[in-house]
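Before relying on records like the one below, remember that each one covers exactly one chain. Contacts with other chains, cofactors or solvent are not represented anywhere in the record.
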Amino acid sequence: MEQMAEKFPIRTRAGGPWDRVTERRAVEMLVRYAWNGLRATVMLRDLTRFGARIDGIGALRKGDWLTLLLPGCPATQATVAWTGGSSAGLMFDVPLASAGYDALIADYACAPSSAGQKAA
């Protein structure tokens, strides 16, 4: 686990949730994936340089691996860190390059919610 902690700045607490060092960014992006000989499309819901959450595939299990085809990035290999219903959390085998990540966020990040703002 120490080697993984050095490669990815993500830690876990015994029996607790993921303790993320890198803030996730909400995105809405349809992306292609390849898994177990299948190719299809899923919705990417949040993204960091180190991983992502996808919706729309229910057969994944923790420890499975797949390939994501993110716009403007090389094919990205990922391991399933968690699953829930048709959602899955992915940890990229190699972090996204900063320039590629920044371009994805610039093009696909959701606007910050105004729900918490008070009217003037």
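The two ends are 50 Å apart (CA to CA).
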